[in-house]
Amino acid sequence: VPREWRLCRFCGTDVVDPPHAMFLCDDPELVKIWEVFLAKIYAEVPEICGRAKSPWAFFADGLQQREITPLLGKLPHNELKNF
């Protein structure tokens, strides 16, 4: 698939993949969703803050924390619901 067909439809600058769509895109509406998401994550598991070196690592680390697994599932749902 040509690169231009894989670019994020919100920012148009990066190839879209799960980490980009969930954590990296700088679309203002997505950023608002992440801010709420991260506030809940950090309230539940404060030690997760700053621990991961990449979005994939953050997601994988979050999946190991049973108390926030539902929040990780809800993030893409909330993003897709709005777009």
How would you characterize the overall build of this protein?
- By secondary structure, the chain is an all-alpha fold.
- It is globular, with a radius of gyration of 13 Å.
- The chain contains five helices and no strands.
- Helix 3 (28-44) runs antiparallel to helix 5 (69-82).
- The chain starts with a helix and ends with a helix.
- The model has no long low-confidence stretch (mean pLDDT 87).
- The chain has one domain (18-82).
- Helices cover 61% and strands 0% of the residues.
Keywords for this entry:
83 residues, mainly alpha, 0% strand
CA-based shape = globular
Q: Would you tell me the overall average pLDDT?
A: 87
* Number of continuous helical runs: 5
Largest sheet: none
Structural class: mainly alpha
Tell me the total number of β-strands: 0
Unreliable residue runs: none
Rg over CA atoms, rounded to whole Å, is: 13 Å
Instruction: Report the span from N to C terminus.
Output: 23 Å
Strand content: under 5%
Share of residues in helices: 55-70%
Order of helices and strands: HHHHH
Overall tally of structural domains: 1
